[in-house]
Design brief:
Elements: H1 2-29, H2 34-58, H3 62-88, H4 99-109, H5 113-141, H6 145-171
Helix pairs in contact: 1-4, 1-5, 2-3, 2-4, 2-5, 3-6, 5-6
Length: 172
Amino acid sequence: MKEDEMNIRRTAIAAAAVGLMSSIALAQTATMSPQEFATMAASSDLLEIRSSELAMQKSQTAAVQEFAQMMINDHTKASKDLMAAAQKDGVTVPAAMTEKHASQVEALNTTDNEAFDAAYIDAQVAAHQEALALMTSYAESGDAAALKAHAQKSAPIVQKHFEHAQQLDKAK
């Protein structure tokens, strides 16, 4: 029964990730407002921080814990940089995650410790793919100067995180 529960939770996390990626794909086809970008970027950073805090508690793997600590450090800095850029552009950064991101963190929170690393890594690959699409899209077509510069600066960092998460995924 435990294996069935583990598979159900992984499926739920994957489904949430697919839903998030479709939101980004939709955002890329339309012009994204500065407020929409700030909301999505802030929620993405919070997802990374909160899910990685869970990884620091639940993971038994050094490589996963090292990655999680890097996510906490890098996305905390990115959040501060986003807030500064948003302020320059007169945009409000929400303090809470979107419902989709919050449900993804909750799914990870209810994952038992044995299944956690695989679920966390799957979520990280999907989240960084989404974040990379968001940053790249806004870096190319954003119309708020400070937020666009933030996206341009953040995209290569998110790309490195995505590649690192993919390496962890291959190693599991």
